[in-house]
Amino acid sequence: MSDQEIVDFSGNEIDVRWDGRLCIHIGECGQAEGDLFVGGRKPWCMPDKVTRAEVREIVERCPSGALSYTDKDGMPETAPAANIAMVVYNGPLYLTGELQIEGAGEDMPGVRRRAALCRCGASKNKPFCDNSHLEVKFEDFGAVGEKGPGLTATGGPLSVKPLKNGPLRLDGNLSIRAATGRDAWQGDNAFLCRCGASSNKPFCDGSHRAAGFKSE
Questions:
Q1: Where is the Iron-binding zinc finger CDGSH type domain (predicted)?
Q2: Is 78 inside any structural domain?
């Protein structure tokens, strides 16, 4: 793998981009069947080794948005039918949907559909996860107790605003999925903890103030 922050891999029908600023090495790409991604090979990603459809499917597995593609037929990645926030066991928040993350640059196309956001408060790349939860031994098993007010529609834009020295504010149709895979909470407005100190995770309970959480 390259040490560069952003690496583009060109193919005849589709190009792949890897963004090292977002990668948390989950391995969905490297574990995929076929020869699109092969560790130790140079280049390690070769889009012409599989079909265009396989490139799209494998890239869209990446939970952090570190992988994205440009289909030369002009077919963009489509937004999922529902916006989902999955609370990862002892880990980050995986978001999928039509994401509008405040502060995400135009050079981060992957996070328009998929993102891994920090929950432990220790990331050096806030609001994105950088695996600091492993170093600080963050512990939260991902249970969700609240049901929320419910939804009258699904999908559509989901605004994600990291509040200064505070939680993530999410506005838009949203389902929160517990780490067990259970669809637990539904609503169109949520404040989610990103300091790691809330007693009501994944929701904010104001603990960031007592904890002295700093978002920068």
A1: 98-139, 177-214
A2: no
Dist CA 106 CA 207 (whole Å): 33
pTM of the shown model:
0.95
SS3 135: helix
Write out the H or E segment, with its range, that includes residue 60. none
Mapped onto helix, strand or coil, the DSSP state of residue 33 is: coil
Residues 65, 101: one domain? no
Give the pLDDT confidence of 146-186 residue by residue, as tens digits.
Answer: 999 999 999 999 999 999 999 999 999 999 999 999 999 99
Pairwise CA distance, residues 29 & 37, whole Å: 6
DSSP secondary-structure letter at 203?
B
Q: Are residues 149 and 197 in the same domain?
A: yes
Domain that holds residue 170: 84-211
SS3 132: helix
